[in-house]
Each structure stands twice: as structure tokens, then as C-alpha cells.
Amino acid sequence: MPGIENRPILKLTSGMLLLLTLSLTACTAFAPSQRSSWKLTDPPSLAPQNQPLNSPKPGSPNPQSRETQRVGPQESIPQKETEPAQPDKELFAVPESIDRNQPPQPRDLPEDIPSRPRLETPQPQTRGKPETTPQRPSGPMMTPPAQAGPLEMTVDVIPKRQLGSGATFYLIIKNTSNQSVRNVLLECEFDSALLFPGRREKKIGQRLGTLQPGESKEINLTLYSDTLGNHCCRFRAMAEGEELVWKSVCVEYVKKQLELSVIGPSARTIGSRAEYIIKLSNVNDVDLKNVKVTVSYDASLIPREASIGSERETGQLKWMLDTIRVGEGVQLQVEFDCEVAAEYACMRVNVTSPELPDEQASACLKVTPAQGVLDVQVRDTKDPIARGEETTYEVSIENRGLQPARGIQLRAKIPRMFRVVSVEAHQGNQKLNLRPEVNQNTLVVSPVQELPADAFLRYTIQVKALSSGDGEFDVTITSNDSDKLETRVSEITTVNR
């Protein structure tokens, strides 16, 4: 019967479909997953893929194969305005005595304050050996005041740092009285194992001027050390030569386990982009587990692109890297739009793991309006790349003036790890016939005779990586206009081994 004859065929078809389903499931289960790290001696040949900053939910597929994806302005999150940290312009070396007419007067710590750390400064020849009589440096008297003074001091610092890393002390001096305090002077004396970049002194100070009732001032001080152990700083605030308040804070320096660096520009114009690359390397002898990277940024920086796996929160981007094995490294990439002028537009990186102390790094850039009538911007089309690969620098020039710009010339300093492959120039859709010349890593392109108002000029410079490292592509644009302004822009590119 026909029905009986069709049953074996139906059974055979069902069996084949079941076998095909099991095969697909097995292939999916045993397919290798994408790693977020690689051996430092064998990095991947392709740049890490990026994702839009409205990150997908965990477990959702990511079919895009592009390195980056644009995020529209509507995706930006309103940011709270924060005051950038100001440089210490009034920093100066402090003599041992405030009275310049008297010799330095050492002042020892009292014996009846056991809760304070003993501020010992051993001599270099006796470092590491027990001393029978501890030496005490001159500095703050640190004697308990008879009554609460008009000033209040708080000092915060990460208590444990890696060798070679900076320990940043965050100080707040506040006038808690109902009267003004004039001629306030802040002094810091630190152990010999701590270093202040660019200075030999171990005692520095900063004038704070007059503090009105209720007014407070914030000061940041970053010191470095390449010596293991606990190292202390002693802070005191004075007014009219009288010590009013003091604090003593110590930091423990431990063996370096993680290399952390941030690479990016130092200046941008309004409307341009700033690209940062964050590098992490495990230099320890054990794996680093549960590594978490947090990037926070000022409100003047608008994030547009980031390496895949990021989670976005207000003012922050976060990555969970799980385990970074011994000898492995990870690179993360973030791009920001620079939409408003800022003297200091900063991004900060914080790395945490149960196996190491919190590690921090930061980078700041200055965002200014474009100078003159020419708006110049530069970007690399692929970054980072591997040795032997190519990338292209795109230099765009817009004439924002009301008159044509004449005699426009490009001069670029090519990083030594690159060799120039080709140079082209286009004005609109028209290719220009220009003569490029490369001499000792300097590229000079013959001038463009005229660029009309509101017109664009675009250079594409293709280079090939011959060696590894971080190189800065530095461009200078000049013209024959009456103001003779020069415009300089740069872009940093990373080449992996």
C-alpha cells in the first residue's frame, strides 16, 4: 500500500534531520571563543574589534565585522560638569626654616603620640639594616594643638602602589572658623625613597593665599618610588609662620605586576576626535584574575567608539577581562568627540584585580577652537596594526574663510617605524597632481595653488609598518595668506610585534 511504502522514507528523513541538528550543535559547542588577550611575543595580526557604546546585552550576538561603529549624538549621556585638576604653578622648594635669617632648626616628633607613624629617614649606607637610634627628619612639629585650629586638613591616597607607579595625594584644606586666615602656606616633606619629578628637594610647598570662612582648596601631589616598603609624607598648613594643622600619610610600594599605559593626543580642535589606546601587560609570575578596567572621562569628552565588551554607565566605560595570563597583554581603544573648548579634558583609567593593588593612569588634552581660516584634522584608518601591515593617514583641510586660501602646503614627520607607500590629494572629487618628496622621515608635498572658501582638501598618506612601537604622525599646514599661520595636528599609531 502507498501509505506503508512511505513510512521508511519518513523515518529516514527524520533521522537525517536529527543527525544534522546534532552536528550543528556540536560544532557550535566546540568552536573556539574570541580571546581578549594575546601573548606579548605573538600579538594578533588584526586590530581589536570595536562596538557601539550602547553595548549589547550579555550573550547577544555581535555579527558586525567592522573595527568600529559610529554612535549617533542621540546616544550620548548627559554628563555632570567637573572642575579639572589645575597644575601646581605655585610649587616651590621649602627651606628648613621659614625665617630666612636664621639657620634651619630641627624639630623632633614627640614621644607621646604612638598612633602616628615613626618618620624615620635612614641614611643610604644603612638602608635595610636595623638602627639602634632612629633618626628623625626636620619638618612639621606635629604637636597636638591646645585647641582646635581654624584650618582642617584631609589627605587621601591609595595605600598600596606598584614600583614605578605614582602615588597621588589628594589634599583638602578648609577654613572651619568664622574669620579669614591669611598667608596660608602648605608644606610637604617626604621620605628619601619618594621622588618628585624634576626636583631633588624632599621638602616642597605651595602658597594658598587667603582662605575665607568656609572656603576650601584642593591640592594634588603625585610622588614616585622604585624602592620596596612603606614611605611616608608629612603635610602641614601654616599661616603667618604658625603651624595650624598637620597630617602624616604612608604608602606601601610592592613588586610590579601589571604594566599600564595610555597613549593618545595632547591637543585637539573643537569638532575633532581624540583616540586613546590603553595597554595592559601581565609582568607578574602568576595569572591575574578578575581584571576590571574602568575608564572615566570629563564631560567635555563625548565617547563615540570603544573596544568590544564595554559596558557604558554615566561618565564611565567598563570592561571585565577575566584572566590575563603570565606574559600576556591586552589593548583597549576609546575614541572621544571634542565638542567644546577645554583647558584640561581628561580621561582616567583604573585597573583592579584581587591579585594586585589598584593601578591608575590618566591622560589629558587641550581642546581649542581652530586658529585661522583653515581647519585641519588628521586620523588613521587602522590602529593598532601589526608589523608588516599598512594603514592610511587622512588629513582634511577646510577653508572656513570668506576668501580663497592660497599656497597651501603639507609637511609631515613620519614615524621611523613606517615607510611611505603612496600619497594622494583630492580637492572635492578632483584628484590633484602634486609632487611628494620624502627625506629623512619628513614628507613634503608641493603647494596647492588655491582652495576656495568653504572647500575641502584631503590628503591620503599610506604607510607600511617596518617595526613595532608607538609612533606619532605630526602634520604642519602652512599657507601664503597675510597672517602666515601654521596649523599643527598629530595622530599616534601603535604597531604590535
Can you give a write-up of this model?
The chain is mainly beta. The chain has three domains: 91-96 and 138-254, Immunoglobulins (Immunoglobulin-like), CATH 2.60.40.10; 258-368, Immunoglobulins (Immunoglobulin-like), CATH 2.60.40; 374-496, ntegrin, alpha v. Chain A, domain 4 (Immunoglobulin-like). 6% of the residues lie in helices and 50% in strands. The protein is built from one helix and 32 strands. It has one helix at residues 2-30; strands spanning 38-39, 50-52, 91-93, 151-156, 160-162, 166-175, 181-190, 203-211, 216-224, 229-239, 242-254, 258-263, 267-269, 273-282, 288-297, 301-307, 311-313, 316-324, 328-338, 342-353, 356-368, 374-380, 385-386, 390-399, 405-413, 418-427, 430-431, 436-439, 442-451, 456-465, 469-478, 487-496. Strands 1, 2, 12, 14, 16 and 19 form a six-stranded antiparallel beta sheet that branches. A hairpin with a 2-residue loop joins strand 28 and strand 29. The termini are far apart.
Write out the CATH superfamily name of the largest domain: Immunoglobulins
Rg, Cα atoms, Å: 30 Å
The main β sheet shows up as: 6 strands, antiparallel
CATH level 1 name of the largest domain = Mainly Beta
Strand content: over 45%
* Contiguous runs where pLDDT drops below 50 for at least 5 residues: 1-13, 17-89, 92-146
The percent of residues in helical segments reads: under 10%
